[in-house]
Design brief:
The complex is a heterotrimer of chains A (440), B (208) and C (324).
Chain A lengths: L9 H17 L4 H17 L1 H16 L6 H14 L2 H13 L5 H14 L5 H18 L4 H12 L1 H4 L4 H10 L3 H29 L12 H6 L5 H16 L4 H18 L4 H35 L1 H11 L4 H18 L2 H18 L4 H15 L7 H9 L5 H24 L2 H10 L2
Helix pairs in contact in A: 1-2, 1-15, 2-3, 2-15, 3-15, 4-14, 4-15, 5-6, 6-7, 6-8, 6-11, 7-8, 7-20, 8-20, 8-21, 10-11, 10-18, 10-19, 11-19, 11-21, 11-22, 13-14, 15-18, 16-18, 17-18, 17-19, 18-19, 19-21, 20-21
Chain B lengths: L6 H44 L6 H14 L2 H6 L15 H36 L11 H30 L14 H13 L5 H4 L2
Helix pairs in contact in B: 1-2, 1-5, 2-5, 4-5
Chain C lengths: L9 E6 L6 H16 L4 E6 L10 H6 L5 E5 L23 H11 L3 H8 L3 E5 L6 E5 L14 E3 L2 H9 L3 E3 L6 H9 L2 E5 L2 H5 L8 E3 L9 E6 H5 L3 H9 L1 H26 L1 E3 L3 H11 L1 H11 L5 H17 L2
Parallel strand pairs in C: 1-2, 1-3, 6-7, 6-8, 9-11
Antiparallel strand pairs in C: 3-10, 4-10, 5-8, 5-9
Classes of the chains: A mainly alpha (440), B mainly alpha (208), C alpha/beta (324).
The complex binds sodium ion (NA) (2 copies).
One sodium ion binds next to helix 17 of chain A.
Chain lengths: 440, 208, 324
């Protein structure tokens, strides 16, 4: 006992802990340490030192040795290998040849190329980084407005987390104990819908301001067809992951392993050096350690929340509110928008879901639908100020485009994202149709 | 950098002594990821072609995950890759920066220190009282033992960084050794790009 | 009847996994009665959904004194409770619910069963009285034992071993993933406690047939208490808890029965029942029973009196039958 409150008022302990955690996070204490430290202290207050520290000592191993999580290193590795397999350039090249002729053609091509790359990459910042390098110079060369060029890459990057494979969606599935496979499937159509809405809004803009986004034509059908074989590994990986998850012939981990092996083979065949492979593996190991640390660190805090009874109380409060569930949902999404301004997406989900999720379910929302909505929200936060990581990434790769221009270029896509979220709320079937199809 | 006390060379030696240990541990984790890929492919092939799934596959994967989850954690800390909110730290300079840094690392030291001891207890229970996986009944203790081992390396890295931060707190003008500077978010973004692009920026282009 | 029990104010936490269900209904009733009898002084709260501990770490949590009671499933962590794995052996004579109840209640006092828990600072409290498993499946119904050859069956522990001996391919899957694997052809059949667990994991939604009398075995998912916390209780509280063990079992059985009534009618409506002849059942037992038992005894004899424990099951079952 530290404060001497103990179990006489566990809710109060829970609220104090949440406040302390927020202070530590703002002070820049890394999430794993802040969450674990506050979780430990909270448990000590409730249980005393021995049981508290003992429980905390079980969590890293217990929570990491979960078969469902083993898909994460596979998804991380696929992304690194996809870059080395040269898929980025080939994708953009093919998209340019096929749809460059429409209004805003190169920007639309960028959207579809990022959507394609999303099928082999689970990280939006990574996707934004590689396309900033491949697509922006071409768009600038053809006289595209640099704000639009930067914006489309930053926004297109976010598609990577909706379209499977996606680390964030896996983490959501694990926290809320949903089937990883069903959630991965659920992200597919909303990812496509997001891409289509991006494309439509670009085309609309290009028709208003043709000078800022000219179309690029003049490719023969032969050139177009020749661009396809180079990107065939993408289709193979999409086919593997979707049919495995949908058809149940492999677990997500096994499908991830097969997908990674395919992309790895292509990368090696296209001349990737041993050193580059080793380096990609090291980076995958680092990213994996980072993700797992955050998971178990936050789960220490969540274990404390379980003892405190705070999530139950929050659920009771939310359900007791005299408001239509949809209004509550919109308020929750706005809260995520604010949080997302300051926090990393995975950290945000890990920290909030244990409290928010039971309330959302008690309100009668579908858990798969909410997962996709909340991941989309987290992605919107990746392109909004003050900390739109994707915008920093674009600016980092293309220092000649000032950050202020990147953020201005994002505006169009922010509107598109709001439209997308509204569409997903109005037509939840876009999310749930595919996974429901699976259960026959 | 004007006047460096005697602590500089020592700090650098410690920093450089620990790095190969961290690199080695991460390399093991990296190979585990590669092996997980091969094992997954093997499992699919054996099951679909021969209807003979690798027995104990899930149990084995679960036990091996400690390798991937923990062995890279210290390396991750050395490179400053554990997630944090940079909003405030990114704007601090001089003594204030090193004070906040030292505080954050102190929290980390406390947490990881407690975890080393109590994850070792968790291992000891499995070792002395018995614990096996659900299906193939593999002993769990080797996997649990990895936690205190990996965390001990992590703890040493934190100690070096703590000493480094305190050293700069005393005199911010000293050369930055054994610390991960509070990088601004922009720098973090730039680093993520490097991660993606691999070693040499030109390599990707030269291949085609 | 026990109202007005005096004593100190206490708050007990029980760690459970999953949602409130038949298995937890008895404990909820017990907690309600205890609070009533002590005028709210002795509060017992069941925390669901692994809030307090992962299912596989519940025994660690008791050892650490983090909570005062827990639900455990012996087959989640066979190495932590080797003697308890006797409950997973196939073809134990526990098909009759009353016999099952008698045998399990008495086994909860057996030295080997008690010793397993003692090392985790736990004492056995009440058996979950899991019903016998039956198998639900999809595709061509295995009307004869030979038909099981090559079928992929989700079955763990000794039951899985028994299924392997009649040629089935044993698969291990988390219960929650079973439906997904099942309906998409990665799995042909699944064994769960019959009937309620099949419904809990929605296997009945995709299955096309079910076995009615295979009764291949069961497992133990039951309740244990924190030994140290229990011993620290004033005697009147201890008596109160122990006095409600029958109540817990009554409620559990009542809930299983209610579930069976609903489910069996539904099962018969949408699935083909498979009933084996006595000769076939005898042959299955011959193949999947004795060899598995002997292997289990040989494997465990040096850790505890495995043969003694195994024979106690049969003796207690005999006793239960004779006592009626
Ligand atoms: Na993706
Ligand atoms: Na943001």
């Amino acid at each position: 006992m530290i404060l001497g409150i103990g179990f006489s008022d566990p809710m109060l302990v829970g609220l104090i802990a949440v406040a302390v955690l927020m202070v530590l996070v703002v002070l820049g204490v890394r999430i794993v340490y802040a969450a674990a430290a506050v979780g430990l202290l909270g448990l000590v207050e409730l249980l005393g030192w021995g049981p508290a520290a003992g429980i905390v000592g079980t969590i890293p191993h217990a929570k990491s040795s979960n078969y469902a999580l083993s898909v994460l290193p596979m998804f991380v590795f696929i992304g690194y290998m996809a870059y080395h397999a040269g898929l980025t350039d080939r994708l953009f090249d093919a998209a340019r040849k096929w749809i460059g002729w429409i209004p805003g053609g190169l920007a639309v091509a960028t959207v579809f190329a990022t959507a394609g790359f999303a099928a082999v990459s689970g990280a939006s910042t990574a996707t934004a980084a590689v396309f900033a390098r491949v697509a922006i110079p071409q768009m600038l060369r053809h006289g595209y407005d640099r704000r639009l060029a930067a914006g489309v890459v930053a926004a297109g990057g976010t598609l990577a987390t909706l379209i499977p494979p996606s680390a964030i969606i896996v983490i959501y599935a694990i926290i809320v104990e949903e089937s990883v496979g069903r959630l991965l499937l659920a992200g597919f159509l909303p990812g496509i819908v997001s891409a289509l809405i991006y494309a439509l809004i670009i085309m609309g803009w290009a028709m208003l301001r043709p000078g800022q986004a000219p179309s690029v034509g003049g490719f023969s059908w032969r050139e177009r067809l020749q661009s396809l074989p180079g990107i065939s590994p993408i289709f193979l990986v999409v086919a593997i992951i979707l049919t495995a998850v949908y058809g149940g012939w492999a677990t997500p981990t096994e499908a991830g392993a097969l997908g990674a092996a395919v992309v790895f083979a292509v990368a090696v065949a296209r001349g990737t050096s041993r050193r580059a492979v080793q380096r990609s593996l090291m980076e995958s190991a680092k990213l994996t350690a980072m993700i797992f640390s955050m998971i178990w660190g936050v789960l220490i805090f969540v274990r404390f929340l379980g003892f405190s009874g705070l999530p139950e109380a929050f659920t009771g409060w939310i359900v007791g509110l005299d408001m239509p569930p949809l209004v509550v949902m919109i308020l929750i999404l706005l809260a995520y928008a604010v949080l997302g301004m300051f926090m990393d997406a995975i950290g945000m989900l890990l920290l909030t879901l244990p409290v928010v999720y039971p309330a959302v379910i008690a309100l009668g929302f579908d858990s798969i639908w909410f997962g996709i909505i909340v991941v989309k929200m987290a992605e919107v936060c990746l392109i909004t100020p003050p900390i739109g990581l994707n915008c920093f990434v674009v600016n980092g790769v293309r220092p000649e485009i000032p950050l202020s221009d990147v953020f201005r270029g994002i505006l169009l896509f922010f509107i598109a994202d709001v439209v997308t979220i509204a569409v997903l709320i109005a037509f939840p079937g876009i999310v749930t149709w595919l996974p429901n199809l699976m259960s026959g | 950098m004007s006047r460096d006390s005697d602590s500089g060379p020592l700090m650098r030696r410690l920093d450089r002594a620990l790095a190969p240990v961290e690199d080695g541990a991460t390399l093991i984790a990296a190979f585990a990821i590669f092996a997980l890929m091969l094992l997954g492919v093997a499992q699919i092939l054996l099951r679909t072609l021969l209807n003979a799934p690798i027995s104990g596959y899930i149990d084995f994967v679960e036990l091996s995950m400690a390798t991937m989850a923990f062995l890279g954690a210290a390396y991750c800390q050395r490179l400053g890759s554990h997630v944090r909110m940079e909003l405030l730290v990114g704007r601090l300079h001089g003594r204030m920066l090193w004070l906040v840094e030292a505080f954050g690392i102190l929290v980390a030291l406390a947490v990881i220190g407690v975890l080393i001891w109590y994850s070792a207890q968790h291992f000891m229970r499995a070792y002395t009282l018995g614990d096996t996986t659900i299906d193939a009944r593999f002993p769990v203790w080797p996997s649990k033992l990895l936690v205190p081992i990996a965390f001990s390396v992590w703890f040493l890295r934190l100690l070096i960084q703590f000493a480094g931060s305190v050293r700069l707190l005393i005199d911010p003008a000293r050369e930055r050794i054994g610390v991960v500077t509070a990088r601004e978010v922009m720098e973090q973004a730039r680093e993520e790009i490097e991660e993606i692009m691999g070693e040499a920026p030109g390599e990707g282009d030269g291949r085609r | 009847r026990a109202a007005g029990v005096e004593g100190p104010s206490l708050f007990w936490k029980i760690s459970a996994f999953g949602n409130p269900r038949a298995l937890t209904a008895g404990m909820e009733e017990m907690a309600r009665r205890v609070a009533e009898d002590t005028d709210g002084r002795f509060q017992i709260k069941i925390f669901y959904g692994e809030q307090l501990s992962g299912a596989r770490e519940n025994l660690d949590g008791l050892k650490l004194n983090a909570f005062e009671g827990a639900a455990i499933c012996e087959f989640y962590h066979p190495g932590k409770n080797p003697a308890w794995t006797v409950f997973s052996l196939p073809f134990l004579p526990l098909g009759d619910p009353e016999v099952n109840r008698h045998v399990r209640s008495r086994l909860f006092e057996h030295p080997a069963i008690v010793a397993d828990m003692a090392q985790w600072n736990a004492i056995p409290y009440v058996s979950g009285l899991l019903p016998q498993f039956e198998i639900l499946g999809r595709g061509k119904p295995p009307l004869r034992l030979e038909d099981w050859k090559g079928l992929r069956v989700r079955a763990g522990g000794g039951l899985g071993d028994a299924m392997e001996r009649i040629g089935a391919v044993k698969m291990t899957l988390p219960a929650g993933e079973t439906l997904t694997a099942f309906e998409r052809g990665a799995l042909d059949a699944a064994a769960f406690p019959f009937t309620y667990a099949h419904v809990a994991y929605r296997i009945h939604e995709v299955a096309e047939w079910f076995t009615t009398n295979l009764a291949p075995g069961s497992a133990e998912c039951g309740w244990v208490l924190n030994k140290q916390a229990f011993e620290a209780l004033p005697p009147q509280y201890r008596d109160l808890l122990m006095g409600y063990r029958d109540l817990v079992m009554d409620v559990q059985l009542q809930r299983y029965r209610e579930a069976d009534e609903r489910n069996l009618a539904m099962f018969r409506e949408r699935m083909t029942p498979i009933t084996y002849t006595d000769a076939e059942i005898a042959r299955f037992r011959e193949l999947g029973g004795k060899p598995v038992w002997e292997a289990w005894i040989a494997e465990n004899q040096d850790r505890f009196d495995a043969r003694g424990l195994f024979e106690a099951v049969w003796a207690l079952a005999e006793e239960a039958r004779a006592g009626r």
